[in-house]
Prior knowledge:
The chain is α/β, with parallel strands linked by helices and 192 residues long. It has helices at residues 10-19, 37-46, 59-72, 118-131, 149-161; strands at residues 27-30, 51-56, 78-82, 97-104, 132-142, 168-173, 184-190.
Amino acid sequence: MKNYHILSTPLALARDYLSKVILSGDWAVDATLGKGRDLLFLAELVGEQGKVFGFDVQKQAIDYTTKVLIEKGWLTRTQIYQESHAEMIKYVPRKSIKAVMFNLGYLPGSDHTIITQPQTTVSALRQALDLLVDGGMITIVVYYGHPGGLLERESVENFLASLESKEYSVIKTEFFNRTNNPPFLLVVEKKR
């Protein structure tokens, strides 16, 4: 596993939280595959007996992720779909998932007009909550410095703020000393 500073990025912080929750044999979801890095991180945590489901609408993301999974020999630990994260409930059994990772925005190095959307992201978050086991966790890294990003940020924050505090704990971590719309982390924990 690559060495990183926990507070260097919201993604590093998300991974730190999840590394304390996910055990070998657990099931997890990468809701926005991108270049497959989160899927690989989750697949390492769940081990040979676990399973990671991955979703992305872009063929480029599916192809890249499949390539790195083959290189690692981890195809049996994963199931990936060229599908919107808003369709995950069709493929993942309810009440079976320990963790779900989201990275909102666009796939770096690709078409920046293909972005996650407020409606599908909120729908996917609703589904992710339904998929979680008690004690499960969702991490959402919100990149919003692109056209459409502020609307998605607002939609996600409003949805998470509406969650019942007796059932879920929700935190938001922002970088206080960074400028130019720095990404931030939202974490949801389903209470036991």
